[in-house]
Amino acid sequence: MVNATLSAPIGLGDLLTISAAIVDSPWCALGDFNIVIDESESCGGTAEVSHAMAEFREFIRDAGLIHLPFTGSQSSVSAQRKAKGDLAQNVWLAKDLLTKAQALFDEFKDDILLQLVSVVVLNGVLQGGDNGGYDAAAGRIEHTLSSEEAAALILPISSGEIKEAFFDIADDNALGPDGYTSVFFKKAWPEIGEDVCAAVNEFFVSGRLLKQISATVLVLIPKLQMPTQVSDFRPIACCNVLYKAISKILVKRMHKVLHSLIDYSQTTFVPGRSIADNIMLAQELLSGYNQARFPKRCTIKIDIQKAYNSVKWDFLLEALKIFNFPHQFINWIEQCITTAAFSIALNGQLHGFFKGSKGIRQGDPSSPYLFVLVMELFHVLFQLRVQTEGDFQFHWKCEELGILNLCFADDVLHFCVGDVPSVRRIKAVLEEFAVLSGLQANPTKSTVILSKAIRSERQELLDILGFKKAAFQSNTLGCH
């Protein structure tokens, strides 16, 4: 399958011509071709458009393709897609493959479209529809790394940095698969320090991480006193000391620039900020909820389900690109998160050895900081939707400061006027972000706080979100 949304330097016609020449098996192309076959699929046109139609028809004929016109209603979504056709080779029809392919596409089209959105949204949504690439997408982000900050992230690693990273690991940290604690490295440093520094530097120079270094033991910590199912356990990653040192070096460098990238709606893990700031602000915004004389207000407390374990790697890496992290640094992060292989500790023994496909490890020093960057894109997406859609109304006391949400690690407080359009917009952004990043709201733990001024719409707002109504309390997220 060929994705037909292209930009210079290679054109759609060039790509499909190359595909026709080198692909032996049946293939098809789907997407927005920005042109139609004839005027019946278009609303008006010009001589230039008619000329382009003729060129497009000629290309289809020369490539041996067949145009498959769209089906369904001309209205609503279908009307918006009239320029989006499908092209297939004759061999598809001869082998009756097209019918099967169409049936499969109809069955799974929602999933396919969601995957396509996941791939292109940072390339388009964050830049307001322009398809100019990730560099253009960065223009939607208010704060990115300067060239000096980016260069500082990839300076050569010194032996002093490496030693500091090892000595910064707590003595009583759990053992990784290699069976060593940081105490061993600290006491033996005069004898092994030079070799250890060489091993760590090998990673930063080569950009490749040995699987033995990134191997991880998962320890299942019960969340309940009497756990009965897998979801009742929290997996904590016990990494090798050598890996932790590498991760700490990356963290120390990220730590220096994080405050310049992250909006003040996030205070957790950001240098110079305190979670108490957001707690006090939340407490102020929640005041008067139990009094009908104040305006209609709604606060939505989002608990992100299996937050660290659910982050999509491609989304995280593209987030780093958008924030202007240098390619070399992104490669270091990619090696750290994608090469991990896991064994599970059960009853004192290790079981299994399997690779992950998404997520960041609880127990990895870099994970909290990477997660903060992911959540910053959530904030940016929310801001963009509020600015462009026009159906959202700010919570009382929030508009002047532009307060949309407050982040507390993997918990988020959303604030809005207590009306249907605003709540629908929040719900839509949550669903969009879930598709992009893999992070979803936990419906059993997420709650809604409605002010007493909201009367007739209360149940409708709860039905839209699918969350439980929480009684007003002043200790939301620890606010006392």
From TrEMBL:
CDD domains: RT_nLTR_like (cd01650). PROSITE patterns: RT_POL. InterPro entries: DNA/RNA_pol_sf, Retrotransposon-Effector_Assoc, RT_dom. Pfam families: RVT_1. Residues 202-469 form the Reverse transcriptase domain. This is Reverse transcriptase domain-containing protein. The lineage of its organism: Eukaryota, Viridiplantae, Streptophyta, Embryophyta, Tracheophyta.
